[in-house]
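Following the same procedure, sequence and fold were stored together, as reproduced here.

>
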Amino acid sequence: MSRRYNSYYPPYVPVAVRQQRNAKILSRLAQDGRQLHPVVATGRNLAASFWGRAWCANVESYQDYANRLPRGRTYLRSRAVVDLCITSGRVEALVNGSQAQPYEILLEIAPLPRERWEALKQKCLGRIDSLLALVQGKLPPEILAEFCNPVSGLFPSPEEMRMTCSCPDWAGLCKHLAAVLYGIGIRL
């Protein structure tokens, strides 16, 4: 069965072809002297660590994003996130799309509100045995549930994030931003 092209939707491009194109763009950017930090998704699950999986689950819990997230995962798996730099409260990224130049992504995350942090500390007081257990996510299930709660946990809500992409998509969350959100989960 062949695909028909109409003026609204571009023709389908196989993942292998997208990966080759993304590798060429990555190589060209690296030749220009830019130090890049690409994100590579390996395996069936995107994120390997507990905190990475928890971040991705948090992103998926917001229904406003539901229609864009699958395309973001596809972009991430095709190695379109050619640069991802995470600093305190700020994420900058380059994501390949349909244009010759990658789209520029900026994600600013508000600090965790002090009241929410204090409430989490009170709930966990005396229940975390070691820092290693915290990093590995090996804590009592009720503590992990508190940390990962979409309303009162550690992860930001959409209202606590300011996201911009240089692509022409008018939506609040484009597929490029969705790919970056999943990329953060891989980095965690």
Summary: The radius of gyration is 18 Å. The mean pLDDT is 84.
